[in-house]
């Protein structure tokens, strides 16, 4: 219930901050979500990625990513940015002493190719990420820590209701295997 309230609140705030109709921008032109010079920020929650096989049960994940449109590449735009998030797993077996936990906090760079398909407000993309993960896993009485390299691949789509606010979904093997959230176009 709390996650639903957070998402609903973010949607409401984003709508109020960027309250322009989707069909046209102030200049009367269709919304083009990602261009050279654009900056986006997305926040999502979903199913976490099971790094190094240390996860038991279903992992929860959360991620924040920022991207900057740098180069025109055919009909799309190549972006470069960064991401930060975590993937968390808990599972109890027979008693409290068999409570397994695993978590990985990730800091990574990411790059993607964005394309809008000539649909107002739509931005689809695919990309790669690479960075470092700080992992902690084990039982209550014995935990281990590792620093691991992390590499990912992802595909995603954003739909902008206004020139500066939309919803986002992403899938792949990254900080999350699947996530939904909100996206803001800052520039």
TrEMBL record:
Q: Which superkingdom, per the lineage?
A: Bacteria
Does the keyword field hold Signal? yes
From which residue to which does the signal peptide run? 1-23
Q: Which UniProt keywords apply?
A: Signal
Name the chain's protein. Outer membrane protein beta-barrel domain-containing protein
Lineage start: Bacteria, Pseudomonadati, Bacteroidota, Chitinophagia, Chitinophagales
